[in-house]
Design a protein that fits this description.
Layout lengths: L7 E4 L6 H13 L14 H8 L5 E4 L2 H6 L19 H11 L9 E5 L7 H12 L5 E7 L7 H4 L3 E4 L5 H10 L5 H7 L13 H11 L5 H6 L4 H19 L11 H9 L3 H20 L7 H7 L10
Parallel strand pairs: 1-4, 1-5, 2-3, 3-4
Helix pairs in contact: 4-5, 7-8, 9-11, 11-12, 11-13
Bound molecules: zinc ion.
Length: about 325
């Protein structure tokens, strides 16, 4: 078992399996018969309690909505107020109270906090003292996909560790296991971040968009079929990045099978125009992260691309 006592803050892109990695670390720390490399055995009493979700020495601090999505909490009753997307100060206080109890099984105790950027300043402040001086044998494993959104006071108390994207082979295997129809295309589209809820989100629409820009299909159909704004904006950003790459003679990252089409589009617009479009999309993506209704409509963005649109004779 690790002797590092500083709270660990694991960070990396969304969809790379960060929550699974935190859960695995908790399992490794709590297992009562780990293997030689320190991995949880999966069948001791502690591992069985963990898989039943009833281990008393593990505490998961998550936003309510995420806890339900990740199977860490039961969905709220019908008619209850919608689950929160933030980690509340009350939830932090419950963790702090729990942290002072003694271990039920006489071993390590683990607090998981994910994502730490879901704590507003008051909630984070309520956690600082416990992070600074955790009770004996308490481990903090925290995670974030947005390290730049983590409060400096919290960040400075943690040991930062970056988590990379899955390797291509592992990403393809994970997609095949989920019966993905076109694992290669999806792995490229999400750049191997296959543990996202929907790694393929926006791909079909992006292909329609690309076809329309290349003179096939109708704009109205594209607008009507647009995914939610947050997905649409990211899809358009990916097309833009690939077009900018094509302009510089580089292979596409997200749409590797469509290099020829991307090269035709890339040539239709000045490089600076592509860059400015990308910047507008990045700003819109930051807004939609906070509020999905951030005044963004697919129509506005499709129009934004309208003058790139190649005539159908091409
Ligand atoms: Zn075990």
């Amino acid at each position: 078992m690790s002797t590092v006592r500083a709270p660990l803050l694991l960070h990396g892109a969304a969809g790379i399996g960060l929550w699974d990695a935190l859960r695995q670390r908790a399992a490794d720390a709590l297992c009562e018969s780990p293997d030689a490399s320190g991995r949880a055995c999966g069948h001791c009493a502690a591992c069985r309690l963990l898989s039943a979700g009833t281990h008393p020495d593990r505490f998961a601090l998550l936003p309510e909505a995420l806890a339900v999505d990740l199977g860490e909490a039961e969905p709220a009753e019908r008619g209850a107020s919608p689950p929160s997307r933030d980690i509340s100060i009350d939830a932090v206080r419950r963790l702090v109270a729990w942290s002072h109890a003694t271990s039920h099984r006489g071993r390590a105790r683990v607090a998981l906090v994910y994502p730490v950027d879901a704590m507003a300043a008051p909630a984070a402040n309520a956690l600082l003292k416990t992070l600074e001086e955790p009770p004996p044998s308490l481990y903090f494993y925290m995670g974030t996909h947005r390290l730049d959104h983590v409060l400096p006071t919290l960040r400075s108390r943690a040991l930062l560790q970056a988590m990379g994207r899955p390797e291509a082979a592992a990403a393809l295997a994970a997609l095949r296991q989920r019966d993905c129809a076109d694992p290669e295309a999806v792995a490229a589209w999400c750049r191997n971040a296959v543990h996202a809820a929907q790694p393929e989100a926006g791909l079909d629409w992006a292909l329609d968009m690309l076809a329309w820009l290349d003179g096939q299909g109708a704009r109205q159909a594209l607008v009507a079929a647009a995914p939610p704004p947050a997905v649409a904006v990211v899809a358009l950003q990916k097309i833009t990045v690939d077009a900018m790459r094509a302009r510089h003679g580089l292979a596409p990252l997200y749409l590797p099978r469509h290099a020829a089409r991307l090269r035709r589009l890339a040539a239709a617009v000045e490089p600076m125009d592509w860059l400015q479009r990308w910047q507008r999309l990045a700003r819109a993506a930051a807004e939609t992260h906070v509020a999905l209704h951030a005044g963004l409509s697919a129509e506005r963005w499709v129009l934004e691309f309208d003058h790139i649109h190649l005539p159908s004779e091409v």
